[in-house]
């Protein structure tokens, strides 16, 4: 967990408690919540991880200006509480039978608020938001960044430190909180004044919800969410003094005293929760989440794995003295592209897309570039546009849908190749989750492209389950990770059926479409 000082723009760390021994008595339940980009879900789990009650609400996403993506914090809070109450009610139990609450949240979506009143200065700024794209370009092309790169290269030459090599190639992206927060500090006068009077709090979604749940007595986040902000040093396990100083983001060194939380609560960043829910506990385990975006994570053991511009070192979870590190690459517009196609009436239900794609032997030369929020690893172009290319008079809905699904699989291939290039750890297993993994066409094509088996679980809602697992372990609801492994059930394992040669020409043409979509804005 993380704890801030009174004037902090960011919190400070405190260790998570070790799991408590299981208490005797009547069986209780654990509630797992996932505050995702598009949906808030809640599931009540029993000891066998059977879902006893559920609820969900669609997140109301706002687009006030071109490229801006926001969420109203008060609406999100109202929906969050409604999901808790409705899930418990659907389970037919009382609130006091919930022994632990685990919360998974979208990461890198943040807010600032008045420390005295608790009132937010602005809406949540989503991880998909592009308002800081000009600032990102300015910083990445600045003399200072070039000097940092050159200095790091010289030091790397003498030390051969891979961490310094990574620093020599480091660039800012719009997905990191860092420059979007810097944009807020530069453009919102109310926030500037609050910072000057030491009355400004900053936090990601988990921080805000915890602050609200405890009526302002708790202001904290966890290591996993902090490490995804772009302001955190996973090697020192603290906020990066260099980056916060570079971007003029204020930090406080003092702690606040904490009060007891009435129900045992555990929160963690969404992708880390799904990693835990998939039981990817060992070095080399890979988790592929395909939800609003695609996130590929590999367990790198107890130490962060330095990369050189592709995958990003993160803290997976810290329980007691155990620290598990990950490396992650992502593509922003996966479920987003499918939802967009649905809104264009290409299909009625997302479940139809699998059959539509399989009804054709190919997309007939139609290619789709999924870039509503720019292109991430390995292309890293926030100015790329989404596009269809190769359209003909004979193109129909099925061609368009197949092109969208193929693009998702191609992006998975790019992420996997980047992971193999940068993370020199043998892959032990690959497990998939997220709503898009229900699409067998995407799953099979991805398995073919990367030439690996991919395990799809019986429950694809792994962020909720992972949050529940973490909370349940902490209160002794479940005894240890071995018990959790026995609870995870596989629904299907996809094995490679086609050779890379059968896809090579198609992917080369798709890459041409990608190149033509880059640097559009």
Automatic annotation (TrEMBL):
Protein name, UniProt field: Glycerol kinase 5
**PANTHER family referenced in this protein's UniProt entry, alphabetically:** GLYCEROL KINASE 5-RELATED (PTHR10196:SF68), SUGAR KINASE (PTHR10196)
Q: Carbohydrate kinase FGGY N-terminal domain: from which residue to which, for each copy?
A: 29-251
Task: List the biased-composition ranges (Low complexity).
Answer: 1-11
Start and end residues of each stretch annotated as Disordered: 1-27
The record describes the protein's role as:
Skin-specific kinase that plays a key role in glycerol metabolism, catalyzing its phosphorylation to produce sn-glycerol 3-phosphate. Involved in skin-specific regulation of sterol regulatory element-binding protein (SREBP) processing and lipid biosynthesis.
Q: Which Gene3D superfamilies match?
A: 3.30.420.40
Native species? Ornithorhynchus anatinus (Duckbill platypus)
GO terms under biological process: glycerol catabolic process
Give the InterPro entries listed for this entry. Answer: ATPase_NBD, Carb_kinase_FGGY, Carb_kinase_FGGY_CS, FGGY_C, FGGY_N, GK5
What catalytic activity does the UniProt entry give for this protein? glycerol + ATP = sn-glycerol 3-phosphate + ADP + H(+)
**Family of the protein in this entry:** Belongs to the FGGY kinase family.
Q: In which pathway does it act?
A: Polyol metabolism; glycerol degradation via glycerol kinase pathway; sn-glycerol 3-phosphate from glycerol: step 1/1
Q: Name one Pfam family in it.
A: FGGY_N
Write out the annotated subcellular location.
Cytoplasm
The kind of enzyme this is, by top-level EC class, is transferase
Q: Which PROSITE patterns match?
A: FGGY_KINASES_2
Enzyme Commission number(s)? 2.7.1.30
Keyword field contains Transferase: yes
List the GO molecular function terms.
ATP binding; glycerol kinase activity
- Which keywords describe this protein according to UniProt? ATP-binding, Cytoplasm, Glycerol metabolism, Kinase, Nucleotide-binding, Transferase
Naming one, the record's GO cellular component terms include: cytoplasm
Major localisation: cytoplasm
Residue ranges constituting the Carbohydrate kinase FGGY C-terminal domain according to the UniProt record? 287-474
């Amino acid at each position: 967990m993380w704890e801030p000082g009174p004037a902090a723009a960011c919190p400070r760390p405190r260790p998570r408690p070790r799991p408590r021994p299981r208490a005797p008595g009547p069986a209780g339940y654990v509630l797992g919540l996932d505050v995702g980009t598009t949906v808030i879900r809640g599931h009540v789990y029993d000891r066998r991880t059977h879902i006893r009650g559920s609820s969900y609400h669609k997140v109301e996403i706002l687009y006030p200006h071109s490229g801006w993506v926001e969420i109203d914090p008060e609406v999100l809070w109202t929906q969050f509480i409604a999901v808790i109450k409705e899930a418990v009610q659907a389970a037919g139990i009382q609130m006091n039978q919930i022994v632990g609450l685990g919360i998974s949240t979208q990461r890198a979506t943040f807010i600032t608020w008045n420390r005295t009143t608790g009132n937010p200065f602005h809406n949540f700024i989503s991880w998909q938001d592009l308002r800081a794209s000009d600032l990102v370009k300015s910083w990445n092309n600045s003399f200072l960044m070039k000097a940092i790169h050159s200095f790091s290269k010289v030091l790397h030459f003498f030390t051969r430190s891979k961490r310094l090599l990574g620093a020599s190639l480091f660039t800012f992206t719009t997905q990191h909180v860092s420059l979007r927060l810097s944009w807020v500090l530069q453009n919102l006068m109310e926030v500037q004044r609050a910072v000057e009077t030491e009355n400004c709090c900053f936090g990601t979604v988990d921080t805000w919800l915890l602050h609200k749940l405890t009526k302002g007595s708790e202001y904290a986040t966890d290591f996993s969410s902090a490490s995804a902000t772009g302001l955190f040093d996973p090697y020192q396990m603290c906020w990066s003094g260099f980056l916060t100083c570079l971007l003029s983001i204020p930090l406080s060194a003092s702690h606040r005293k904490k009060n007891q939380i009435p129900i045992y609560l555990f929160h963690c960043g969404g992708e880390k929760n799904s990693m835990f829910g998939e039981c990817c506990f060992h070095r080399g385990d890979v988790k592929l989440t395909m939800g609003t975006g695609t996130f590929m994570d590999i367990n790198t053991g107890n130490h962060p794995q330095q990369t050189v511009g592709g995958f990003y070192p993160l803290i997976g979870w810290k329980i007691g003295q155990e620290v598990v590190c990950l490396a992650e690459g992502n593509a922003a517009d996966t479920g987003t592209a499918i939802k967009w196609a649905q809104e264009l009436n290409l299909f009625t239900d997302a479940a139809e897309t699998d059959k539509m794609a399989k009804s054709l032997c190919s997309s007939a030369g139609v290619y789709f570039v999924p870039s509503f929020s720019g292109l991430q690893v390995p292309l890293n172009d926030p100015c790329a546009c989404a596009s269809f290319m190769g359209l003909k008079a004979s193109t129909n809905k099925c061609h368009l849908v197949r092109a969208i699904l193929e693009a998702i699989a191609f992006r998975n291939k790019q992420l996997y190749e980047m992971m193999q290039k940068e993370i020199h750890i043998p892959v032990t297993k690959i497990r998939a989750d997220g709503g898009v993994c229900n699409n067998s066409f995407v799953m099979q094509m991805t398995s073919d492209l990367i030439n690996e088996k991919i395990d799809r679980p019986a429950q694809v809602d792994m962020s909720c389950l992972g949050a529940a697992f973490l909370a349940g372990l902490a209160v002794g609801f479940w005894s240890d990770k071995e018990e959790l492994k026995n609870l995870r059930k596989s629904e299907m394992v996809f094995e490679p059926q086609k050779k890379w040669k059968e896809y090579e020409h198609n992917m080369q043409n798709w890459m041409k479409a990608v190149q033509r979509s880059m640097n559009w804005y």
